[in-house]
Automatic annotation (TrEMBL):
Region annotated Disordered, chain positions: 610-639
Domain of life the protein comes from: Bacteria
Segments crossing the lipid bilayer: none
Protein name: Caspase domain-containing protein
GO biological process: proteolysis
Domain Peptidase C14 caspase: 21-283
Molecular function per GO: cysteine-type endopeptidase activity
């Protein structure tokens, strides 16, 4: 019996330890002009996704790249087939596509609306003609078959993640650069058989209707798309919106996270950069990320290169919360914690990009081998409130342009963008009213129909400042995992809730098919559930940020003025505030709830109510930090490090909708 037991243990151990992680990253950006497709920046997504996977201990030789002319229809199929040959049961596979997408006429009668969704390889054309009838479009039927084949090969202890940074359709392409086409690929005279729009990515039904039979022990799969089936997928400052948000979200996760929770963070990040674009998640969404082998961001960063003896570069940047003027320590690699005994030198981040930083060292290094060094954060900087503003051609008044430009320059709040692709917000004029608009699609940011627009330069600047403050706080990320917590809104069902509730809101009708938590205005009621995931006592509070950037205190608030001890959580405690019921009113928009957890009592309500005035006398560093964001002109102080701030932040997105 002991021998059998030992054999079983060894079998389980060996099957776990030898499980591998594989990835295929496919990116097409420079399409041949003959295809009719526009150039997009898909190749910029590759280093983001690759580095994210390397951080999750994917081996570099297990990550295959297929770009531009190599990513033809046959090239993609060959790469998928080669990957199928090398994987084994229990392995983890990630497949990422960055390219155009397009809806195409259904060729086998399996679609209700008569349209397939398709990825657009390097050799696929944008229009149907006598020379090309869609044979190089990679249809959802084929993708569904490959998904089934991978799931069968990986088996029940494996896992498949697909990321689609493309889109298939959309009503228009106004504003920033988008991936996809609004035109359905079809012969002349073709008509859709239905007005019903696909939900989610539009691909899921073809997973279930695969030509290959799905085995009962098939692996779970998760499909995350940058936009729903009826939307365009916009780029963000030269990278794919999903590639950017996935990379940033993966950097923010704590312990024991599911793909459902990962998607919540992707949705939060998407709301910041493209507020009217709806990412989707489908499949086994409650599966644990990489079978619970997700690796939290380490407290150190590996050196990518030694540029000279006093300048180094690391493969992490703004996406990872590293900004200019952050100070660092350099230690020998393998160090568990920076201390006086092992610090080789200190330095300051001079330049921070999406996913890399350049650091100037105070003392030169003796060796140029980058593998000998690790970098630890000394005093963090949280960046600065800064917005790039683009003037639409509808703004003719030169005094408005001058007034806004002067306000941005004098307060070091931002600058006027030359191109819409680099803008955070677009100013448009209709009559005497100036509105703030999203660069992607040019939708009006303010969803309050009764108070849209500003008519004076002072009002415009106040609106811009609120927007900048909101964007800054949405992006603020504190990651002291000693105070890790999470929260969510759940339907108010009094007879089924208790303080230890484990109800999963994702299976409730409050969550739509894209994965977004929605509440119907003037009808739905929800309550707040908060969990302390740390082993320490913590205090929390939550603010709400609307589409305009305006801030309100969500917990506590005027109706629920909970004292500090009522927002105190013991280690591991889950508290459902079932007597504090939330109801909602228009405008109809997506909002972000941002929660803060700290080791000391915290209450943002007075700070928010007085627009920062009360924080001048507070001894709470986080309340003081929030109060300072209400000051338009912070000068150089806005760029200084903030060593006193300590805590953990968590975000939750919800949408107010009509009945």
């Amino acid at each position: 019996m002991k021998q059998i037991f030992l054999i079983l243990i060894l079998f389980f151990y060996s099957s776990t330890i030898y499980a591998e992680k594989y990835a295929l990253i496919v990116a097409v950006g420079n399409y041949p002009k003959s295809t009719g497709w526009s150039t997009i920046h898909s190749l910029n997504d590759v280093p983001l996704i690759k580095q994210t996977l390397l951080d999750q201990e994917f081996k570099e030789n297990n990550i295959s790249l297929l770009t531009d002319e190599a990513a033809t229809y046959s090239g993609i199929k060959n790469a998928l087939n080669e990957l199928l040959k090398v994987i084994n049961p229990n392995d983890i596979v990630v497949i990422h596509f960055s390219m155009h997408g397009q809806q195409i006429f259904d060729n086998n009668g399996d679609e209700i609306d008569g349209k397939d969704e398709a990825l657009v390889p390097y050799d696929a054309w944008v229009k149907y003609n006598h020379n090309y009838k869609g044979e190089n479009h990679f249809r959802d039927d084929e993708l569904g078959t490959y998904i089934t084949m991978f799931r069968n090969s990986l088996q029940e202890n494996g896992q498949l993640l697909l990321l689609l940074d493309s889109c298939h359709s959309g009503s228009s392409s106004r504003g920033g650069l988008a991936r996809g086409s609004k035109a359905v690929f079809a012969p002349d005279g073709w008509k859709s058989t239905s007005n019903i729009e696909d939900s989610g990515s539009g691909l899921i039904e073809n997973v279930d209707n695969s030509k290959v039979k799905l085995n009962v022990n098939a692996a779970p799969y998760i499909l995350i798309s940058g936009a729903s089936a009826n939307e365009l997928n916009y780029e963000y400052k030269g990278v794919g919106s999903l590639s950017y948000t996935f990379t940033k979200a993966m950097n923010k996760l704590g312990s024991n996270y599911s793909f459902n929770q990962l998607f919540a963070k992707i949705e939060t990040e998407m709301n910041i950069i493209s507020p009217y674009q709806n990412p989707t998640i489908e499949g086994n969404i409650n599966a644990e990320i990489f079978n619970n082998a997700y690796i939290k961001q380490q407290p150190f960063y590996k050196v990518k290169s030694v540029l000279r003896d006093d300048v180094i570069r690391i493969q992490s940047g703004k996406i990872h919360g590293l900004f200019e003027n952050t100070t660092v320590f350099v230690t020998p690699s393998g160090t568990s914690k920076a201390s006086k005994e092992n610090i080789i030198t200190s330095g300051t981040i001079l330049n921070s990009k999406f996913n890399e930083c350049t650091i100037k060292l105070d003392e030169p290094l003796e060796n140029s081998n980058e593998k000998k060094y690790w970098v630890f954060i000394d005093k963090p900087s949280y960046g600065d409130m800064f917005v790039n503003v683009f003037f639409d051609e509808s703004v003719k008044d030169k005094s408005i342009k001058a007034g806004v430009s002067n306000f941005l320059n004098e307060n070091e709040l931002g600058e006027v963008a030359k191109y819409i692709d680099s803008a955070d917000v677009v100013l448009m004029q209709k009559g005497n009213s100036i509105t703030l608009n999203s660069p992607n699609g040019l939708q009006v940011v303010d969803k309050d129909e009764e108070n849209i627009g500003s008519s004076t330069i002072e009002e415009i600047n106040q609106t811009l400042f609120a927007f900048a403050q909101g964007q800054y706080l949405k992006n603020l990320d504190l990651k002291n995992y000693n105070y890790e917590f999470e929260f969510k809104l759940i339907p108010n069902v009094n007879d089924s809730l208790n303080n230890n509730s484990t109800n999963d809101i994702k299976i409730r009708p409050f969550v739509n098919q894209n994965g977004t938590f929605q509440v119907i205005a003037e009808k739905d009621e929800v309550v707040l559930q908060v969990t302390n995931k740390s082993n320490r006592v913590l205090y929390f509070c939550i603010i709400e940020i609307n589409s305009k950037g305006e801030i309100a205190s969500f917990m506590p608030n005027d109706d629920y003025p909970l004292m500090d001890d009522e927002r105190k959580l013991m280690p591991g405690q889950t508290e459902t505030f079932k007597h504090k019921v939330y109801e909602f009113l228009p405008p109809y928009e997506k909002l972000i709830l941002k929660g803060f957890a700290t080791p000391y009592p915290i209450n943002f309500k007075t700070t928010v109510d007085t627009r920062g005035e009360s924080s001048r006398s507070t001894t709470n560093p986080l309340e003081d930090f929030l109060g300072n964001t209400y000051t338009p002109s912070r000068g150089s102080t806005g760029k200084k490090a903030n060593p006193q701030i300590d805590g953990f932040t968590f975000d939750f997105v919800y949408e107010i909708i009509k009945e």
